[in-house]
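Entry for the shared binder. Reason: the reviewer on the internal report wants the predicted structure included alongside the sequence.
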Amino acid sequence: MTTCPKCHYARQPTDTSPDYECPKCGVVYAKAFTIPSSHTALPERAPKKKGGVIMIAALVLLAGGAGAWRLSSKDNSSASQLAAGAPVVVDKAAAKNAEEEAFRKRQADERERELLDKAAKDLERLHGRWKDASALAGSTARIALATPVASLQAIRRETVEMVVPECLDHSKEALLQGMNKEIEGYMTFMQDANLGKLLAQSLFTEASDAFGKFTFRMKDACPKG
């Protein structure tokens, strides 16, 4: 007894349809039997194909994730190295700036020291010239004192016009005080031979005291380098 593979109808002896055809649904048995085999193959292959696609997609995702992780790790490593190296660069730059600043300060200190030394030497030279001119005036007759006194006055003007550092102000002040008193003494002596000589002596004493202050103040006038 034949059973239809399509509708599952069992053929009866009383059925009048041809033997190769199902009495109920009319399907040809030979064709119906070949259809299931081809159809059954397709469902079997379809899951495999779907599973392969899923597997490939999973592999692609894994590969992409691994690449992204490596790239991220590389970026993080580079960032870490850069962050670790940054303080070194900053420290080197700061050390270089500090060294340059110290060098500039040393240069400025040296220039200031040179200016102080020059100003002090200029004052000492003026004092030396003054002593020479004063000695000449002291050995000159009263009636001929005009020329030596004029030389003393010229030296005093140079001293007045000289600009000195603040630390030499008191020294310069004492030097000018001695010059002024001595010139005043000579002028007094030139006016009167007798009384002028007596009055001039007191002025010369004051001048000598002022020159002594100048010499004393010059010893420690400015800080030493």
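Summary line for the report: Residues 29-138 form the longest helix (110 residues).
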